[in-house]
Structure formats: structure tokens, C-alpha cells
């Protein structure tokens, strides 16, 4: 299994003496340094898998906690509607953190570590795609989702920060940004999602033609 990584970008020391413009410039540079020189091989594989899912009706499941959950919901919307509004059929994308009734039921009855894996056990099928967003790569519910995805026969991707955690070894294709900064790690999740959305938009005619033939 190959692993796609960026060079390590360290978070700067907390310097409270400077003004906001200097801090903002430093943040922008860290984000740029994280993305510049990155090998996009695994992301390109994800793009191919998502295009195939779009053409064949396979499902794509997103999951994450906190800000990563927000990114999961945001991107599921992009792939359902933003892609689908012109071709008439978007990707069958699901954000596992989106349904608060399901989340609170599962967390209360089964434990928070099972909130994603149980949903996958009900809805996912072999060759569906699982995309996990995690800064640390060590959240138990993310690890359980990856384990359940493997049991089902899904293709799993994990977009990770910091050291990549345990998820780095569990995902079929880890996409690892070695950045010691949770906000930059979450930014990278959205960057990848928006790259995929724009790439797939250029392929919409292939999908339309395939569905009409």
C-alpha cells in the first residue's frame, strides 16, 4: 500500500506580540506549504473511484467529528446537488454525521464509537466508497468505520493530519498531510473535496451520455 504524504509543516510558536495581518500571512503560508509539492496520486485514484461511482450508482459515505463532520456534510451536499443540478443525477453521497436523531440514538444506545460503523452496516454495500476525515486519525468511531468498511468490502480513503494515527494503516488509501495544526488539516479536507468536485464537473458529459445510452 502506497501512502501519499506532504512534507511536515510545523505550527509556529504562539507569538502574541504581532498584529493580525502577520498572523494571517503566516497561516496562509502554512496552508500553501502544506499543499505545495504534495503528490496527488491517491487523490487522483479517489477521483477515478468517484467518477465510477457516479456512473454506476455506487454510494459514497463521508464521516468525521467536529469540524471534520461539518466538512463531511458540506461535501456530501456538493456531490449530491452541485454535480447533479445540470446532469440531473448527482453522486449518491451520504454524510454519516448529518442525522442528529440517528447519531444521538446510536451514541446513547450503542456508544459514540459506533455511530458511523452501525450506519455503514445498514446502508453500505461492497465497492461503495468510504471517505473518513480525521485530524488525529485516532478517533475510535473513525477506526470502527474503517474496520466495518473493510468487512463490507468498501473502498476506504482517510484524509488525515498530524502523524496520521492508526487510521493511516487501516485505510486502503490514506491521504496524509503531516501538519501539526488542526485548522490546516481541516482546510486540506475541504481543498481535496473541492478539487474532486471541480474535476468531476468536467466529466459530467460522460455521465450524462452513459445514462442516456
UniProtKB/TrEMBL annotation:
<dbReference type="GO" id="GO:1901135">
    <property type="term" value="P:carbohydrate derivative metabolic process"/>
</dbReference>
<feature type="region of interest" description="Disordered">
    <location>
        <begin position="1"/>
        <end position="21"/>
    </location>
</feature>
<dbReference type="InterPro" id="IPR035461">
    <property type="entry name" value="GmhA/DiaA"/>
</dbReference>
<protein>
    <submittedName>
        <fullName>SIS domain-containing protein</fullName>
    </submittedName>
</protein>
<dbReference type="InterPro" id="IPR046348">
    <property type="entry name" value="SIS_dom_sf"/>
</dbReference>
<dbReference type="GO" id="GO:0097367">
    <property type="term" value="F:carbohydrate derivative binding"/>
</dbReference>
<feature type="domain" description="SIS">
    <location>
        <begin position="46"/>
        <end position="206"/>
    </location>
</feature>
<dbReference type="InterPro" id="IPR050099">
    <property type="entry name" value="SIS_GmhA/DiaA_subfam"/>
</dbReference>
<dbReference type="InterPro" id="IPR001347">
    <property type="entry name" value="SIS_dom"/>
</dbReference>
<dbReference type="Pfam" id="PF13580">
    <property type="entry name" value="SIS_2"/>
</dbReference>
Amino acid at each position: 500500500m502506497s501512502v501519499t504524504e506532504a512534507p511536515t509543516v510545523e505550527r509556529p510558536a504562539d507569538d502574541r506580540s504581532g498584529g493580525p495581518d502577520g498572523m494571517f500571512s503566516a497561516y496562509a503560508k502554512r496552508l500553501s506549504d502544506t499543499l505545495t509539492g504534495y503528490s496527488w496520486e491517491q487523490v487522483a485514484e479517489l477521483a477515478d473511484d468517484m467518477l465510477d461511482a457516479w456512473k454506476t450508482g455506487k454510494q459514497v459515505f463521508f464521516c468525521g467529528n467536529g469540524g471534520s463532520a461539518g466538512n463531511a456534510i458540506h461535501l456530501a451536499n456538493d456531490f449530491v446537488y452541485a454535480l447533479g443540478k445540470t446532469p440531473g443525477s448527482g453522486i449518491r453521497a451520504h454524510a454519516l454525521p448529518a442525522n442528529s436523531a440517528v447519531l444521538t440514538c446510536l451514541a446513547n444506545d450503542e456508544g459514540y464509537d459506533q455511530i458511523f460503523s452501525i450506519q455503514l452496516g445498514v446502508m453500505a454495500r461492497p465497492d461503495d466508497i468510504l471517505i473518513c476525515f480525521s485530524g488525529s486519525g485516532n478517533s475510535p468511531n473513525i477506526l470502527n468505520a474503517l474496520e466495518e468498511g473493510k468487512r463490507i468490502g468498501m473502498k476506504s480513503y482517510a484524509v488525515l493530519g498530524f502523524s496520521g494515527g492508526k487510521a493511516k494503516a487501516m485505510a486502503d488509501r490514506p491521504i496524509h498531510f503531516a501538519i501539526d495544526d488542526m485548522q490546516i488539516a481541516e482546510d486540506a479536507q475541504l481543498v481535496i473535496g473541492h478539487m474532486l468536485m471541480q474535476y468531476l464537473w468536467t466529466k459530467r458529459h460522460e455521465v450524462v451520455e452513459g445514462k442516456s445510452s
